[in-house]
Amino acid sequence: MQLIIKDNYKELSKEAAKIVIEQIKSKPNSVIGFATGDTPLGLYKELIKAHKNGLDFSQIITFNLDEYLGLPDSHGQSYNYYMWDKLFNHINIKKENVNIPDGTAFDPEKFCEEYEAKIKKSGGIDLQILGIGRNGHIGFNESGSKFNSRTRIVNLTKQTRKDNAKFFEDINNVPVQAITMGISTILKSKKIILLANGKEKAENIRKLMNESKTEKFPASALKDHPNTIILVDKDAASLLD
Fold first, then answer.
1. pLDDT digits (tens, 9 = 90+) for 11-44
2. 61 touches 97 (CB < 8 A)
3. Active site positions, annotated
4. Would you list the DSSP string of 136-148?
5. CA 57 – CA 24 distance, rounded (Å)
6. What is residue 6's three-state secondary structure?
7. What pLDDT is stored for residue 105 in this prediction?
8. Roughly what angle, to the nearest 10 degrees, separates helices 9-26 and 41-52?
9. Which of 97, 112, 11, 106 is nearest to 60 (CA)?
């Protein structure tokens, strides 16, 4: 893993955008894995700026990491809504090239198999963007997730639901399950960038960089990946030697 430390969130976002932009310029039909949450918002703003300056997104294919089970695309807290609101509506991406797990799939287990197959058929993910959860989760792969896991339905922990409750009116409105790419699925990506900012992520970054690999801390699976960049600000790196 390569560690890059930037002074602040703005600089972190610019560096992340630089990596994504270079990927698209070198391969216009890149397959890119997108993440949601607060951390990538700065990156997405930078990508919108790049599009306004001429970057072409028309050939890229996207796969999102996860989606809440039971939320329709139109729900204000669905990750489908998030991606279109925060990025896709502002660039020239083709709707047919966008892939986001379907939280209302009639047969969710079958959908997971088809999603996995579609990633493989696309040639695999060229660049995967990740955040990191409080318990070290990547995507919705909670603590204890198997490193050989594939796209599947998962139960969300109380901590994850508590962390995400700020986006809902009440924790009782936060779904209890989600569809997520598996850890094995993520590790098949040719290149990965994991973004983390703020002191609340410092302990996770310390663990990721300094402790042994364990399924109790899902992000540690990245230690096996040959081309991963850990991109953090000074606050998130504050517990590193």
1. 999 999 999 999 999 999 999 999 999 999 999 9
2. yes
3. 66, 135, 137, 142
4. S-BTTB-TT--TT
5. 8
6. strand
7. 92
8. 50
9. 97
Both tokens of residue 118? 């579609």
CA–CA separation, 32 vs 121, rounded Å? 14
DSSP H or E run through 126: none
For 56, other C-beta atoms within 10 Å of its C-beta total 14
Contact 103, 68 (CB under 8 A): yes
Residue pointed to by tokens 């799939």: 105
Mean pLDDT of 198-209: 96
The Cα 75–Cα 89 span in angstroms is: 16
One DSSP character per residue, 178-222 reads: EEE--HHHHHTSSEEEEEE-SGGGHHHHHHHHHS---TTSGGGGG
How far apart, in whole angstroms, are the C-alpha atoms of residue 236 and residue 137? 16
Tokens 């997104």 label which residue?
57
* DSSP single-letter state for residue 156: P
Summarize pLDDT for 119-156 with one digit per residue, the tens. 999 999 999 999 998 889 999 999 999 999 999 999 98
The encoded tokens of residue 149 equal: 């896991």
Helical (H) or strand (E) element with 233: strand 228-233
0.85 exceeded by the pTM?
yes
HEC-encoded secondary structure of 89-110? HHCCCCHHHEECCCCCCCCHHH
Handedness of CA 165, 168, 170, 173 (dihedral sign): negative
